[in-house]
Write a structure and sequence with these properties.
Strand order of the largest sheet: 1-2
Radius of gyration: 20 Å
Helix content: 40-55%
Largest sheet: 2 strands, antiparallel
Shape: globular
Strand content: under 5%
Structural class: mainly alpha
Length: 259
């Protein structure tokens, strides 16, 4: 397993046929599956958005899906172990993996889609009112939302690197609703360390907080104050909590869309 060792946060038993020692998915999860999860999020996002972008006769044409090209994995082959990342699969990230995660969080399709959705919500509330409605107002909100997200992501990943925090979500692997819900809720505020232990995630709190307050610099008068910054921070935390609950309970094809 190269220079990395498996963490100590283990879940329930491994599936039949899995390797008895080492990771549930063996080394393949850290190579092929890491690439697959990012590629699959892009692919599935594209599949969901395709009907919205298709027009005229193109919508009725049938095409054979192109094979998924991932190094080390045969086309159209997704190892079952890759479909859900359990907490027993935890292995500390390398610097390269942290950089890849940062770039994906910065410009990945899930981030862009979340920015558009949140901007549309603010457009419906006409908040801030100084930006008005129409395409120009929506453009202001998208640009502001993306800038806030980029600042928050940069602070979060920087703090995580400095404090040895890993904010990736690993499913509980449990079956009871109460246990799974409690695990998902606490995971929004906890980070893993290289030894597998979990503690309060300063990066997961500090990142959104920095983004919320720094973004006040370009906000108009109605959303320029401290109360608006805390409100924006609360929305970001609430979205993260909801995202972790979705990562735990959503159907498989939906979970593979999530960052």
């Amino acid at each position: 397993m190269s220079e990395r060792t498996r963490g100590t946060d283990t879940g329930p038993g491994r599936p039949p046929g899995a390797v008895a020692t080492g990771m549930r998915c063996d080394a393949q999860w850290q190579t092929g599956c890491n690439g697959l999860t990012g590629d699959m999020r892009i692919l599935h996002t594209a599949v969901l958005l395709a009907p919205l972008l298709a027009a005229g006769p193109l919508a009725g044409q049938a095409h054979d899906p192109a094979p998924i090209a991932t190094p080390g994995v045969a086309p159209n082959t997704i190892p079952p172990e890759c479909l859900e990342r359990l907490r027993e699969d935890f292995v500390p990230m390398t610097r390269t993996e942290r950089v890849k995660q940062y770039v994906d969080s910065l410009i990945g399709p899930s981030t862009l889609l979340a920015t558009v959705v949140r901007s549309g919500f603010n457009q419906g509330l006409n908040r801030p009112e100084e930006w008005g409605q129409g395409g120009r107002g929506f453009g202001y909100r998208v640009a502001s939302g993306y800038a806030q997200s980029a600042i928050g992501t940069s602070f979060k990943d920087g703090i995580a690197l400095g404090l040895d925090e890993d904010n990736r979500y690993f499913a509980s692997g449990e079956t009871g609703f109460r246990g799974r819900l409690g695990y998902a809720l606490e995971s929004a505020f906890l980070a893993r360390h290289d030894d597998g232990s979990r503690s309060l995630s300063y990066s997961e709190i500090g990142g959104p907080l920095a983004g919320a307050f720094i973004s006040r610099l370009w906000q108009p008068d109605s959303t320029h104050g401290v109360s608006s910054a805390f409100a924006s921070f609360g929305i970001s935390i609430g979205m993260h909590v909801g995202l972790d609950v979705a990562r735990e309970f959503a159907p498989g094809f939906v979970r593979r869309l999530l960052p």
